[in-house]
Amino acid sequence: MSNNNTALLLFSGGQDSTTCLGWAVENFKKVETVGFDYGQRHSVELDCRMEVLSAVRRAFPAWQPKLGRDHLHAIPVLGDISETALTRETEIAFAEGGLPNTFVPGRNLMFLTLAAAIAYRRNIRHIVVGVGEVDYSGYPDCREQSISTMKDALNLGMGYDFVIHTPLMHLDKTSIWEMADHLGGPELTDIIVEYTHSCYLGDRTMRYDWGYGCGHCPACALRTAGYEGFIEKMVKTDKII
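and the corresponding structure tokens:
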């Protein structure tokens, strides 16, 4: 029988997956995490993910008993077969078809397949992933239909009953900041600012109000706009003076 009290979270060390960590802890008795080293240009996120987990454990002692094993796996083949701005020293631009060349074909599909294999081995039914189809740069593997279809394929192919949770699916970046604040207050949003990484160029030298990054790549632009919207709403509701 699969375990209904445990979830496996795809955890990159970014803003979205850290927010999902708070969501998963609120909804399950045990949360395991998994990350993948696929030769990403912004490999600094692999260091950040451990710093985030450590910071969360320090800031939220009540969450400590729920935070289970972390899994980290190298899948260099994904980087080897990809010609993208996330896996090569290539200028970020829009490619043919209108997608940015930061799109890594098959990435989320491979992540989910491997996460499901880990979950199957560990008798875990629930998988949590921080994809969304609002502020998602147009990536087709972030859409609700893609995730739903992938779930069906995994269940058919493994003879299992996985449930894939996408708590950020219909949220923009401002709403994701708000969700983090609701789940963990300023302690969680401060962790997101100080420890998480989103910048596609892997820049940790520049510090902005919303965190570290180059400040101009698509990921930084989305994070900036979301944070500014979040602060504006906080001021209007007198949560920040």
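(Above: one complete record from the training split.) DSSP finds seven helices and seven strands in the chain.
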